[in-house]
């Protein structure tokens, strides 16, 4: 990638969030700042090896209203994307009725897309035959449909793309959307991630490979990023959509934005289907690439929104990366302690939370982590400054958000104060 740091920055002018902490941007942010896990027993998973999850609270009719008869053709991950996109666009002060839709791009990532519908419809096929399979199965299943339905809902006729890089899908969507803006392919980019794959088969699959926490007796204590006794992640659902614009265009509308997306680094471990590269050298390369694009040094980073899955190997590799590349000790948070792991949506959710951290000068605590209870601040070779207990007041001018996915995908987004 080429171009000066100033030219490569784009403004984040709108945010939409739907997570287990709440419906909407501010409700989610308040829940994350409280630092209490949203995990609880899940009746739909009662016969699974792990029977708890982080689900979005029940929506009121107004909150969940798609409109008309559209909802019947949308998978849940698509519905969440549409609702989050509407919030983001309204937050940005944009009116789809008056914009030039040909200049609006949509990029939405998902890791498992409509897997939930494939699971239920497969059961119908085996139990009752083909006549019980819903005609809407394919549009509910295919991963591009979130981007397609957001485009249709908002009248966005520019590039419409879906990204699939496992747990970094939402972050990849933001990086690609930024490049579309900077290439001149669009004037507004609506980008993020959405996931709704908390199902018996998917949960069992993750449990069988040893990725999930087994704390069924204490689900609220299960997701504990960077804790010494972490034993796996908690599966979750959620969606986040961000509106990106060139800074000069946002300024012309009188919008300063939450933050600037000033750099992005994307690399591949090319090592193993699920395990990170042991030395973390390619995750480091992604971090250094994001810094280079922004024209900043490692010492400029004052906050890290960690991938922090609460799995033993991933957290150790990430903590070692932070300690090695950022030895000056920026504050570290890990929202999955509160929200669980929303898979393909997580990277976009965490980028949105990093933007809110910059806006409010407050760093959220890591749920279920106590000071001195982990490799964080305990004198180990990978000491990092994890925020614990309560939110920390801190002026943040440069934040990085890490996303790492199965298949070796590494995405680092760098956000700066506008």
Helix % is 25-40%
Could you state the order of secondary-structure elements as H and E? HEEHEEHEHHHEHEHEHEHEHEHHEEEEE
- Return the structural class: alpha/beta
Q: Quick one: overall form?
A: globular
Cα(first) to Cα(last) distance is: 22 Å
- The number of helical segments is 13
Over the alpha carbons, how many angstroms does the gyration radius reach? 20 Å
Biggest sheet details: 12 strands, mixed
The chain-level mean pLDDT equals 93
Low-pLDDT runs:
none
Count of DSSP E strands? 16
| % residues in beta strands | 15-25%
In words, what does this structure look like?
- By secondary structure, the protein is an alpha/beta fold.
- Helices cover 33% and strands 19% of the residues.
- It has helices at residues 5-8, 25-34, 76-91, 115-128, 137-141, 145-154, 169-183, 200-208, 247-252, 281-294, 312-325, 336-339, 346-360; strands spanning 10-19, 22-23, 40-41, 52-53, 104-109, 160-163, 188-195, 238-245, 259-268, 303-305, 331-333, 362-363, 385-386, 392-393, 398-405, 409-416.
- Strands 1, 2, 5, 6, 7, 8, 9, 10, 11, 13, 15 and 16 form a twelve-stranded mixed sheet that branches. A two-stranded antiparallel sheet has the order 3-4.
- Helix 7 packs across helix 13.
- The chain is globular and about 60 Å long.
- The two termini are 22 Å apart.
- 58% of the residues are buried.
- The model has no long low-confidence stretch (mean pLDDT 93).
What are the main properties of this structure?
33% helix, 16 strands, twelve-stranded mixed beta sheet, single chain, alpha/beta
């Amino acid at each position: 990638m080429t171009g000066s740091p100033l030219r490569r920055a784009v403004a984040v002018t709108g945010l939409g969030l739907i997570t287990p902490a709440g419906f909407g941007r501010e409700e989610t942010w308040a829940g994350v700042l409280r630092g209490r896990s949203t995990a609880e027993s899940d009746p739909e998973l009662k016969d699974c090896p792990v029977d708890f999850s982080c689900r979005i609270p029940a929506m009121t009719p107004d909150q969940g209203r798609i409109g008309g008869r559209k909802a019947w053709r949308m998978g849940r991950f698509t519905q969440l994307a549409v609702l989050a996109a509407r919030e983001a666009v309204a937050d940005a002060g944009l009116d789809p009725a008056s914009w030039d839709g040909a200049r609006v791009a949509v990029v939405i990532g998902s890791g498992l897309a409509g897997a939930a519908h494939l699971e239920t419809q497969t059961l119908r096929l085996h139990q009752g035959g083909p006549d019980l399979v819903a005609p809407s199965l394919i549009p509910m299943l295919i991963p591009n449909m979130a981007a397609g339905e957001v485009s249709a809902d908002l009248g966005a006729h520019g590039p419409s793309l879906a990204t699939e890089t496992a747990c970094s899908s939402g972050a990849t969507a933001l990086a690609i959307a930024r490049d579309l803006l900077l290439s001149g392919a669009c004037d507004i980019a609506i980008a993020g991630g959405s996931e709704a794959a908390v199902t018996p088969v998917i949960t069992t699959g993750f449990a069988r490979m040893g990725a999930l926490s087994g704390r069924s007796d204490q689900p609220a204590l299960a997701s504990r990023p960077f804790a010494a006794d972490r034993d796996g992640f908690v599966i979750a659902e959620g969606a986040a959509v961000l509106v990106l614009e060139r800074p000069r265009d946002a300024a012309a509308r009188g919008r300063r934005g939450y933050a600037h997306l000033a750099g992005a680094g994307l690399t591949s471990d090319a090592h193993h289907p699920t395990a990170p590269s042991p030395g973390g050298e390619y995750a480091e390369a992604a971090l250094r690439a994001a810094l280079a694009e922004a024209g900043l040094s490692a010492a400029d980073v004052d906050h890290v929104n960690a991938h922090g899955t609460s799995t033993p190997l991933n957290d150790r590799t990430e903590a070692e990366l932070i300690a090695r590349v950022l030895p000056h000790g920026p504050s570290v948070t890990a929202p999955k302690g509160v929200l669980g792991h929303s898979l393909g949506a997580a990277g976009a959710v965490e980028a949105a939370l990093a933007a809110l951290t910059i806006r409010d000068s407050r760093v959220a605590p890591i749920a279920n982590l106590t000071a001195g209870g982990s490799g964080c601040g305990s004198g180990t070779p990978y000491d990092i400054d994890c925020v614990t207990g309560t939110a920390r007041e801190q002026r943040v001018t440069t934040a990085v958000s890490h996303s790492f996915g199965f298949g070796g995908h590494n995405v680092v987004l760098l956000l700066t104060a506008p």
